[in-house]
Amino acid sequence: MVAAKVSSVYPKDAEASPCGVDDMTKLAYLHEPGVLQNLKSRYDMNEIYTYTGNILIAVNPFRRLPHLYDSHMMEQYKGAAFGELSPHPFAVADAAYRLMMNEGVSQSILVSGESGAGKTESTKLLMRYLAYMGGRAAAEGRTVEQQVLESNPVLEAFGNAKTVRNNNSSRFGKFVEIQFDQRGRISGAAIRTYLLERSRVCQISDPERNYHCFYMLCSAPPEDIERYKLENPRTFHYLKQSNCFELDGVDDSKEYLATRRAMDVVGISSDEQDAIFRVVAAILHLGNIEFSEGKETDSSVPKDEKSLFHLRTAAELFMCNVKALEDSLCKRIIVTRGESITKCLDPEAAALSRDALAKIVYSRLFDWIVNKINNSIGQDPNSKSLIGVLDIYGFESFKTNSFEQFCINLTNEKLQQHFNQHVFKMEQEEYTKEEINWSYIEFIDNQDVLDLIDKKPGGIIALLDEACMLPRSTHETFAQKLYQTFKNHQRFSKPKLARSDFTIRHYAGDVTYQTELFLDKNKDYVVAEHQALLNASKCPFVSGLFPPLSDDSSKSSKFSSIGSRFKQQLHALLETLNATEPHYIRCVKPNNLLKPAIFENINVLQQLRCGGVLEAIRISCAGYPTRRTFDEFVDRFGILAPEVLDGSCDEISATKRLLEKVNLKGYQIGKTKVFLRAGQMAELDARRNAVLGRSASKIQRKVRSYLAHKSFILFRKAAVQLQAVCRGQIARHLYENMRRQAASLRIQTYFRMYLARKAYQELSSASIAIQGGLRGMAARKELHCRRQTRAAIIIQAAKETGALQAAKNKLEKQVEELTWRLQLERRMRADMEEAKMQENAKLQLALQEMQVQFKETKAMLIKEQEAAKKAAEKASVIREVPVIDTALMDKLAAENKKLKALVSSLETRIQETEKKYEETRRISEERLNKAMEAESKIIELNNSMQRLQEKLSNMESENQVLRQQGLLNSPIKQISEHLSVPTTPKHNLGNGHHDIEEPKEPQSAPPAIKDYANSDPKLRRSYIEKQHECVDVLINCVVQNIGFSQGKPVAALTIYKCLLHWKSFEAEKTSVFDRLIQVIGSAIEKKTFVCYITLSRKAKPRDKIKNNESNDHLAYCLSNTSTLLHLLQRSLKAAGAIPRRKPSPPTSLFGRMTQGFRSSANLAIDGPDVVHEVEAKYPALLFKQQLTAYVEKMYGIIRDNVKKDLTSVLSLCIQVPTVLIQKLFTQIFSFINVQLFNSLLLRRECCSFSNGEYVKSGLAELELWCAQAKPEYAGTSWDELKHIRQAVGFLVIFQKYRISYDEIVNDLCPVLSSMRILMTEDSNNAVSSAFLLDDNSSIPFSVDDVSSSLQDKIFSDIKPPEELLKNPAFQFLQA
């Protein structure tokens, strides 16, 4: 509960809209609570603008509302009457523009409010709209309106800073005059600034910031930072006095670039921009100059090297002498009549001199920027109308208030007086327009405060100027002078316990000022040394900021009053405002947290008082605050006198009669409105509420009467219904008695019927029982006959079993005979191949010897022919001597004939040998084909024999089951004796064990149905045949190359799923594993033999293709086999397996490989969903061991094939550069290293620079492959080539004689140097080749490595083969 005094409670309009009204003059009760509630209601609805007459109140939302300020919104307000649309700054700007164009009177818009209320943003919006209205449709270059708009970011960069109340507070006053021509186009503009806060350059408090331009420059691009020798803002004295360096949502680097672009638009050249930021950087460096005591008394020098660096940097940026800058800061020259005296400054005075230089330079820079903008924009001398926009600081009252707050509050006092006069004038115009009688309305006049401050002589500013003129005056003497002069002034007071403070009672509240810095801040003069230093600068821009003083100026006093000059500027501003038609925008800050959706009532109420809004309301309340049009008044209060509305009179007459009827005094009747005194609206509302209360009582009485009448009707209707119910109950009673009598007669009838039916049923059941006994006897006889028939069938089946056993034995003998023949054929084929190879070798040797003899004979013949020719030539010269030696000639001719015959015979023998070789090769190929066909037939016979064995075992199991059933069902003991069958030995051909088993359910592959022993024998046979068909289909499918799915072999997973589904791993006996091993073994043997035949003869292109296809097929088989082995490794657990004796360590290479593979431990891996652990029986474990052996065998075959393919290429690699980009394993790279390195050692002629370059190019391609391949494929392959890499690197070195032995051993060939020891040890052994490298042919992996490389793969997403999915028996693969 809230308790309050009645006198403190204000009336509230019950019919007011919850969203508030857009014009507070429409409020029924115009008082402070009503105004505050209306603003809060609209602020909650994001309606931040509200009118109070012609005054616009703008509440800062602290959020972006872009939909309120787009071009569409400006188009809406263009030409709209004031008040027709929602309140908006565009409406105020449009009203000012229309008045200027229609009446030719200059306008002004005054934007005020405290820091953070949004004055700067509102000013931007006004200038945007005026530029929109007065802009040109098309213009070349920069237009005036563009320059006016772009001047805002430039002035904000150099004149705005973060304060406690605002992140972008304007620290200067600004009045923008926008000039228009006769057509309403912007023709010129001028910017007037007031009272820049110079002290902020040197002194800031936490958490405020200095001017934005300093932080923008520190975030400039790197080239600018390097040019101006800048660092982080935290390193500069003028910036690090506060801990705030960044603003939320503001990027200083982007703002720097935006400011440079805005400077381009307003007409500041690039050189001038560089000079401006050069001066800004120099000010930052000035602040970092610290001073310490010098050698002389009361002297000062730069403190350390850091200070000297900043001193030199500042002098460099100012383009002045370093020594002159130091002297201007640390010394003063006192000019007397006869001489000049140089006075040294102590460190404190030097620091003050430094700050004074920084402040005057920044102030001159800001004034130059404003003048440059004005000159660039230009003013129109022919313009006769303008619109001025005033963005002035609001009323300020801080904990510490100095000279700046004093001047700011003086400005607000002046503007408040102007505002009060304008509001009073508007009120008078309203009364005159409505032609009502009115008397003078008093309002608070603050002329006494203005006289206290700026009256001349005798005001505070005049006394401050006087104190500044006196050389020995201090702030304490100035304060004492104020106390004596204004001790009786009602607006002036002295705070308690204060020695130099004073308090002024402003219109917005009391403000206490501290006078410590009043005198220093009021003095506006330039130190002569600073003036001379910067005037002599080599930079034209800097020297232009400090032009030489005239003789009159130099002779006059250095002192110039800032307060007096500001008062003159303020006077000129008020003259401009008085010459224009003013419009007001009062900006309000809803909270001090600067956050949206927070409305602090006390804070807003204080700002409304400071802004004069409540004063305007008070002025309105002093006259006739409540105003209503005649139609609104009659509609609202017509119920007070309804008879007034019955006649045919107009609204004015009705209003007058109504007011006379209620006997109200003091009101006024205007032309369109009725004016009421304060409180009269509440009186009329009270009477209206009374009439409404009486009307409500009448309505309640009528409603209660209606409800009573309705209740009586309902009671009467209920009584009638109750009587009807009672009469109906009596009638139903009578009817029930009559119905009982009729029912009793019917019951007697049905009871007699029941007795008769029961006697008939007993007789019928007796006859049926007799018939059933007779029929049962006949059925038992029939059953006995059927049992005898079944026993006979069983005996016949036993006979058939014996026949099948005989057939089985016969087939086994055939298989053994065929196996023996195959082995014999293989031995014969091997012997023949060896004999043919030996014979071919002998023939080739003989052929080579014959060719050598032929060549020698041919050479001898040629020599003899040449000798004969020479002899003939000599004989022609010499005289003929008759010599006859026919025997020698005949002998030579005979020898020639013998030689020719020998050559022809050798050629014939060579041709015959080639023919025999071709025929032998053809016969060997035919025998190979026959052997392969025989081997396939043997495999088929083995398969058929295994099927017969399974059928035999199944039939034995069926016979055993039938015998047991016959024993159980037969009542005759002799039949059971004849049908008993002894246990038979079963041969487990898969593993070689012979076990005597008891009759039980057969467990052959695949056992899908558990109880099929109890089913019909025909069904069991069909099921077994169906299972064999499924195994055949699976084998026919996986024999083909069905490829990979997502990088994983499909065949391996398909086989695993089928074995798992058929429960083959848990079977004691099954042929599936043997068939799979036979398929894998036959594929390996076939491809291996093809590779052997291809490599044993001279390779042709077709043979090379076949060899590559064989390698591809072996790689495909290796991938599937290793994957299947990985799945078995994770699934099978040999809990129930028979423990085996530890085998002896093998001695052969293949045995060691097998032992290394089988040494892997059980892996506990969380596999994919398709892998399940099962207890494996002996066939499954044997199958796993066989798979391990085949994986090792296929790996060795592939490795040897690749090595054979590379051997011929590597032998030519030193002479011919070849492409060695192949995906090889680490052992292949090691093999390459061994072959190439040994070739260099054994073949001395290859150790040349050109051969080294060829090998180096090939090694470069291998290195490129290793870099491009992933580590999982390349591994450490590149390191395996270390010997050949260092050897080739040594061969290709230029000028080897300049390289020392130590450099070769330690830097170039560290690996090769280690081989020197081996060569030294074996130097005595001439046969030894210990310096050669050996090839490592061991198996470099185990089953654990295979499993670890595959355990990351997911097998659940592999798609099974389409051939199997079409078969209904393999639908489980889709699961």
UniProtKB/TrEMBL annotation:
Pfam families: DIL, IQ, Myosin_head. ATP binds at G113, E114, S115, G116, A117, G118, K119, T120. InterPro entries: Dilute_dom, IQ_motif_EF-hand-BS, Kinesin_motor_dom_sf, Myosin_head_motor_dom-like, MYSc_Myo11, P-loop_NTPase. Keywords: Actin-binding, ATP-binding, Calmodulin-binding, Coiled coil, Motor protein, Myosin, Nucleotide-binding, Repeat. Residues 992-1001 have a biased composition (Basic and acidic residues). It comes from Cocos nucifera (Coconut palm). Residues 570-592 are annotated as: Actin-binding. GO terms for biological process: actin filament organization; actin filament-based movement. CDD domains: MYSc_Myo11. GO terms for molecular function: actin filament binding; ATP binding; calmodulin binding; microfilament motor activity. This is Myosin-6. Residues 797-860, 889-965 form a coiled coil.
